[in-house]
Specification:
It contains 6 helices and 34 strands. The chain has 516 residues and is mainly β. The chain has 3 domains: 200 residues, Immunoglobulin-like (Sandwich), CATH 2.60.40.1630; 161 residues, no CATH class; 95 residues, Immunoglobulin-like, CATH 2.60.40. About 14% of the residues have low confidence.
Length: 516
Amino acid sequence: MQDNIDKKIKEFASRETIRVPKGFDERMERIKMSLPQERQVHKARRFPMRAAVILAAVLVLCLTIPVVAEQMNLNQIFKNIFMKPSEEPKMAPDTAAEGKAPVMEPVEADHPFLTQAGSILFQKVENAGLSFTARGIVGDGNSLYLAFDVETLDGQPFEGETEEKVKQFLFGEIYMQLDGASMGQYCGAARIDDGSVPGKATFLIKETLRFEGVDSVAGHQLKISIKDLRVSDDSLKVFDMEDLASLSKNFSEVTPDDYLEWGATESEGPDGVKDRHTIYLLNRAGKKLKFCDTYPEMEIDNMAFIDGDLYLNLNLNGAVNPNDLSDMNVVNRKNGEILSVHGSGFNAVNLDTFEGLDPSVGSDYENGEQIGTRVQFIGLGSPEKLKDAVLALGGTGSYRTVYQGSWEFEFPLDYEDTSVVYEDMNQVLPNGIEVEQMTLSPISMKLTMKTDVDSFGDMALELDDGSRIALDDLQWDRKDGVVLFQTMYPAVVETGRIKAVVINGERLALSGDQTK
C-alpha cells in the first residue's frame, strides 16, 4: 500500500503542468530551511530536465503535502487507527446522567478534521542498515500524531525477526525540539502495522506537546531525533486464543454498581508532569468462559472496560502459579507490539481478610488458597481497539541494540489548528476547582485552572447525545497555584458535539458564546 502511495507521489511530481499554489515561494523557502544540513547517506537521483518549478514541487511533495489530493489517504498511512463516536443511533437526552460510552466507528478518509489537521509527509533518512521515512502528521495546537516507517535497506527481515518468535522493538531515544531550541521533550513510539511484511514496520508517535512560551505548535518547525533500534531478548509466550475484541462480546456493559474504586497510581516525569490512573475492583460475575488453548483450564470470570482500562477477572484452576502472572501483557499477536502491561499492582481479593468490603465484589480465595486473579491493563481505550490483541506472558525484560545509529526528521507542522478556545471562563465547580481557560480540539483538551487539588481523575467529555467519553491519558503540572492540564482523547471528537466536560466528577457545561 505504501509503495503505491510512493509511486503516486512521484507520478504527481513528474507532470509537465503543475499549478503553483498560493504562498508557494514562502513555503519553498521554509521547506528548504528544514532540510538537514548533513545526512548519513546521500542518494544520487536523476531528475528530467524540466522547469525549475517542477523540481521545486518535487521537494515540496517529498517533505510536506497538505491533504488535498484524492489519492492521498491518511487512514492508510496511520493503519486506520483513528476512531470516532458514532452518531447513530443517538441516545435520548435523559440518559446523560448515566454517561454511557458511545459506540466507536472508523474515521472516514475524507473526514473534515483529517483534511484540515493532517499532512502527508515523504521524508527519508538512511543509516545503520535502516531507512526511516516520515509518512504523515495529524495534530492541533497542543498534540501530535506522527506515523513513520522503518525498513531494512537490504529487504531482509529485522535481526531476530522470525515467524516463530514474536519480538518487541524499542527505540533507545526519541527527542523532539521546536524551532531549533536546545530544550525539548522525550517521547515513545508504538508499532501499528500488522507485521505482515518482514523487515518493515510502521510506528506511531502520539504525544501531548509542551513547549514553554508556545500556545500553539501549528506552523512551527519540529525536529525529531531517534537513536538506536532495540529488540527484546526474550520471546513472549503468546496465548493461543481469540482476540480480546471477540471475547469482549461475551460480557455485558458494566454499570457503576458492578465495580468500586480501590485507589490510584500516580507518576511524575522528570519535567514535573504528572500522570494518574484510577484502580477499580470489578465484581466477580460467576462466568466460566474457557478461552485459551495454551492454558485450557483457565477461565474468564468477568471482563469490562472502565475509564479506558481493560479489567479481567480470571479463574486460574491450577493452570499457572499466580505469581507468574505479574508480567502479563496485552500484545498484538501479528506484530508483537505490547499494547499494555498489567498496571494495577493488585492481584487478588480475599474477603476473609478484607474487613468491610462489599461481598458482591467476590473473593479470589477459597479455603485460604488463591484460585483467581484480577488484572488491569491501562490505556487500551475500548473493545474496538483490541482486534488481534491477545494475552501474553514475559517480554518486558531486557532489550539489546541491534541497529545502532541515529535518524533525524525536520519539517514544519503544516496543518490547521482546529482548536476552539474558551477564554475568561472563571467558572468555579462544586469541588472548588476554578476553570480559567479551556482549549478544545477534536483530539485534545488543555485546561488552565486555579485549585489546591493535586490529583485528577474521573475526567470525561459529554457529547450532545448524553454519552460520555472517559479520558485517561492525563498530564498536569502546577506553578504558582495554577494548574495546566492536558489530555489526548481516545477518539476523534467534533468540537461541536462536546456539550460539557467532566472534571474530577463535576460537570462543566459549555456554550458557544464563551468561545474566542
